[in-house]
Amino acid sequence: MADRPTKRAKTAAAPSDTEGQAAKPEHLQVCSDAVEEADDAAVDVLFRLTSLKDAPERHNRYAIGLQELFEGEFTQCLLTNYMYDLPWLFASCPRLQDVPVVLVHGERDRHAMTQEWNGYGNVMPVAPYLYGNRHTKMAVVLYPTKARVAIFTTNFTAIDWYNKTQGV
């Protein structure tokens, strides 16, 4: 009975896709090819980082800002977060003042929040503990023909959006 080659011998003998260079795993090759072929201004990715206010332009190359998330003629908006700076948020995204907005928040003083932004629906979910609760930070922005869903790691505060790297 002839000896079969070992797995190591089979692997070493297998031809690679590129002469003298090991082939990239398929998922990495697809990403690499897409970035190389894409026009810098038109790279469309599902995950982005927030743009930083005072960072060099190259650091914000594929980043997204708050104004970009809320661009266009949307008709309604659902915002969920635990921390809001509402005067800053509504000043940064003026369109939010013109459409129905529902705020899901963790603010303990719901009465004060309601008075501050009278006319906006706001909901405070029941949380069994004051700290350590998981909570969703997201925006659902409705347009006449589409919906934009953005899930992120940042609070709706200026310091989080402008000075900290966050995921979107």
TrEMBL record:
Keywords: DNA damage, DNA repair, Exonuclease, Hydrolase, Nuclease, Nucleus. Substrate binds at residue 137. GO terms for cellular component: nucleus. The active site is at residue 135. It holds the Pfam family Tyr-DNA_phospho. It is found in: Nucleus. Its main location: nucleus. Residues 1-25 are annotated as: Disordered. SUPFAM superfamilies: Phospholipase D/nuclease. One of its GO terms (molecular function) is 3'-tyrosyl-DNA phosphodiesterase activity. InterPro entries: Tdp1 (IPR010347). GO terms for biological process: DNA repair. Belongs to the tyrosyl-DNA phosphodiesterase family. This is Uncharacterized protein. It comes from Pythium oligandrum (Mycoparasitic fungus).
